[in-house]
What does this fold into?
Amino acid sequence: MTDQSILERISGGDKAAVKDCLDAYGALVWSLARRFLGNVADAEDAVQDIFIAIWSAAGQYDASIASEITFISTIARRRLIDRLRKTGRRPATESLDSEDSAQPQPAVASRLEESAEVAKVARVLESMPPDNREILAMSLYEGYSHSEIAGHMELPLGTVKTRVRRGLMQIREQLQLTDELAQDELR
It folds into this structure.
């Protein structure tokens, strides 16, 4: 073992460091991919892409800026967010002429429900004060950490955390109210 970090060893061309990186951070990257994507096949593909990105960016790692785990987690989160955005924009490729198209498929119904949920969340976000809306958007949609948001908006970290928490609670409450109203209308 050397005093160099795994990423420094990778950028230096140490072949053993690649295995060390997988051993040290494989579980972390896998858990992030599973949490973000929810699908084993998609998570497996994402993990491969993430490690390729980590190894490609290893030369950019600076221990004076962030810890190795933070650097790797940030790359993983950003790649996963990019993957979610990309798949969210991909048009459905299912045939409309098939015999089964009369009944909505579970995947299609699930996407429709998610789309309705996203629309509800967007309406709740629009009703929030602009500063709170911007903080939540940076956290939820753009994947910034609370610390990054605090630095960008020049706010104390505690204020950012409080606004994110309150915003998420407001969204949750509004979604529950909407669901309760919809259920009342069905009765």
